[in-house]
């Protein structure tokens, strides 16, 4: 480019010198036209000489104009060469067989070799093997249609590096018999890679969108514009057209369970997600048949051009989870009521024991103390003896009641000793109650031990009060990851299929305790065949253990 800029001032100087000399000669010629012809010259000759002189001046003026035109042409040619050679776009001329005939500097840079090495070679050799057929079709289209064509394909430089080029070409007719193709080469590697990455990203998104088990939707202006098949399954719709275009509150009850109108609440959530970028909430929706179901909704805003936004919605059916939560809440309430009822029953039992046992003994002792008479030694001694017996009975009843309320044997000697103590206390001349306890884990939770102890007490009390048995057993052992408590008797039994019968025999409290401990209760009994009650408790206890051990 520097050489071209140096040549331009030299051309201008030569043109100026030529024009100056031409003007000087023209002036001299002009003076000749005014010089008179020699004397004796015929008039016709003088007229002819003047016409020739004028014609000569006209030719010289035309020559001057031609020189000016030549200067302008040289300038235009220099500008064209500068634009062609140093353009940021590769230009080349190829023959019908793809042979390079001419190319500029940028084209040689794209192909990675000097022009001297490229001229005469086929451009097809620089096209990736997989795209050569497409390139040949491209050249044929240029020659056939005589219209501009565009093609993007991978090309390989001399050093084997690959780049993506966009070819824009057209065919032209020159002085030769065969047409030529003029091509413009653009390096679009970065754009191509970005487009490929975008295409792959879109394909992945569509795959995730279409194949997701969760409902996937796209919304614009808070109306559905696309959805996957999982949404159709959730709503039980036959095709997308039944949903697309509708408001986000479509297929919803008029009001949500919190009392708010679905339409207004959906608009509120739309504003929130545009403000915050994402939003998660739970929503009650209706299937096509009117059946309600719960979904967990996750909204994500996808900003687009200014003033517009696309929102991606993820629907997950949580109906089973919501029903489980309701069931769990109901169960917890039922268990809490059962614990309170058990506590009330225990309080009434304690009150009855205090009133009918300890209270009566103390009242009788008071009556005998009132009969003590001063001066009547014999009557006083009898009264004192009776009062002593009554007080001893009261002390024994108080000790028994205290033992029932606070299992001191369990605290002092452990669960095995406490179980055996229950059998010892409840055994009588008419009932032989035996206890079998296998070795238990040393790390047995304290609350679990108390719960087992309380259930063993209740089972033995049921045997004593209701079974009318002569033989009974309490068994406690570990089986796998469960602790097994078993109570057997040879009493009158009952129909285990009738829950009212088993509950009337005091087993309802045991059922509640077992449920709190996530265990299982099995009752095997027939009328006249005795009863077998088996309680299975998991050794890994949860937060309900404390509640089960209370009361």
From TrEMBL:
EC annotation from Swiss-Prot or TrEMBL: 2.7.13.3
InterPro entries assigned to the protein according to its UniProt record, in alphabetical order: HATPase_C_sf (IPR036890), HATPase_dom (IPR003594), His_kinase_dom (IPR005467), PAS (IPR000014), PAS-like_dom_sf (IPR035965), Sensor_HK_TwoCompSys (IPR050482), Sig_transdc_His_kin-like_C (IPR004358), Sig_transdc_His_kin_sub3_dim/P (IPR011712)
Keyword Transport set for record: no
Residue ranges annotated for the PAS domain, each copy included: 76-146
Swiss-Prot/TrEMBL keywords: 4Fe-4S, ATP-binding, Cytoplasm, Iron, Iron-sulfur, Kinase, Metal-binding, Nucleotide-binding, Phosphoprotein, Transferase, Two-component regulatory system
Pfam family, one: PAS_9
Entry annotated with the keyword Nucleotide-binding: yes
Substrates-to-products reaction catalysed: ATP + protein L-histidine = ADP + protein N-phospho-L-histidine
UniProt main location, coarse: cytoplasm
Compartment(s) of residence: Cytoplasm
Cofactor(s), by name: [4Fe-4S] cluster
Residues covered by the Histidine kinase domain: 349-541
NCBIfam families assigned: sensory_box
Main function: Member of the two-component regulatory system NreB/NreC involved in the control of dissimilatory nitrate/nitrite reduction in response to oxygen. NreB functions as a direct oxygen sensor histidine kinase which is autophosphorylated, in the absence of oxygen, probably at the conserved histidine residue, and transfers its phosphate group probably to a conserved aspartate residue of NreC. NreB/NreC activates the expression of the nitrate (narGHJI) and nitrite (nir) reductase operons, as well as the putative nitrate transporter gene narT.
Designated name of the protein: Oxygen sensor histidine kinase NreB
Organism: Hymenobacter citatus
Lineage: Bacteria, Pseudomonadati, Bacteroidota, Cytophagia, Cytophagales
């Amino acid at each position: 480019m520097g050489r071209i800029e140096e040549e331009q001032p030299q051309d201008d100087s030569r043109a100026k010198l030529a024009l100056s000399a031409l003007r000087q000669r023209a002036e001299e010629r002009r003076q000749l036209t005014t010089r008179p012809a020699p004397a004796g010259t015929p008039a016709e000759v003088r007229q002819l000489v003047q016409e020739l002189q004028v014609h000569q001046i006209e030719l010289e003026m035309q020559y001057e104009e031609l020189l000016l035109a030549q200067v302008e042409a040289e300038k235009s040619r220099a500008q064209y060469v500068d634009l062609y050679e140093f353009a940021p776009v590769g230009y080349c001329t190829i023959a019908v067989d793809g042979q390079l005939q001419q190319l500029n500097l940028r084209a040689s840079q794209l192909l990675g070799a000097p022009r001297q090495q490229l001229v005469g070679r086929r451009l097809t050799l620089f096209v990736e093997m997989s795209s050569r057929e497409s390139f040949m079709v491209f050249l044929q289209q240029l020659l056939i249609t005589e219209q501009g064509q565009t093609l993007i394909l991978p090309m390989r430089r001399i050093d084997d590096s690959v780049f993506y080029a966009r070819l824009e070409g057209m065919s032209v007719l020159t002085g030769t018999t065969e047409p030529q193709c003029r091509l413009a080469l653009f390096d679009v590697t970065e754009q191509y890679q970005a487009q490929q990455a975008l295409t792959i990203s879109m394909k992945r998104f569509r795959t995730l969108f279409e194949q997701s088990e969760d409902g996937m939707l796209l919304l614009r202006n808070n109306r559905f514009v696309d959805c996957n098949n999982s949404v159709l399954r959730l709503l039980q719709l036959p095709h997308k057209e039944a949903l697309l275009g509708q408001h986000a509150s479509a297929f919803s009850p008029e009001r949500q369970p919190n009392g708010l109108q679905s339409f207004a609440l959906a608009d509120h959530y739309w504003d929130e997600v545009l403000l915050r970028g994402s939003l998660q909430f739970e929503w009650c929706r209706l299937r096509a048949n009117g059946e309600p179901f719960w979904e967990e909704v996750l909204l994500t805003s996808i900003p687009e051009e200014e003033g517009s936004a696309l929102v991606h919605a993820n629907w997950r059916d949580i109906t089973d989870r919501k029903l489980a939560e309701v069931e769990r809440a109901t169960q917890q309430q039922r268990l809490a009521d059962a614990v309170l009822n058990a506590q009330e029953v225990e309080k009434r039992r304690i009150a009855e024991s205090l009133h009918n046992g300890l209270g009566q003994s103390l009242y009788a002792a008071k009556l005998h103390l009132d009969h003590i008479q001063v001066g009547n030694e014999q009557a006083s001694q009898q009264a004192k003896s009776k009062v002593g017996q009554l007080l001893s009975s009261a002390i024994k009843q108080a000790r028994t009641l205290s033992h029932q309320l606070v299992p001191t044997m369990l605290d002092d000697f452990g669960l095995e000793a406490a179980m055996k103590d229950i059998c010892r206390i409840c055994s009588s001349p008419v009932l032989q109650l035996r206890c079998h306890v296998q070795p238990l884990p040393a790390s047995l939770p304290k609350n679990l031990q108390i719960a087992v102890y309380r259930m063993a007490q209740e089972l033995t009390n049921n045997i004593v009060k209701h079974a009318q048995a002569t033989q009974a057993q309490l068994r406690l052992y570990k089986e796998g990851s469960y602790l097994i408590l078993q109570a057997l008797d040879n009493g009158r039994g009952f129909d285990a299929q009738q829950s009212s019968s088993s509950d009337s025999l005091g087993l309802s409290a045991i059922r509640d305790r077992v449920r709190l401990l996530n265990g299982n209760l099995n009752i095997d009994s027939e009328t006249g065949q005795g009863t077998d009650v088996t309680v299975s408790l998991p050794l890994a206890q949860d937060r309900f253990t404390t509640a089960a051990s209370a009361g």
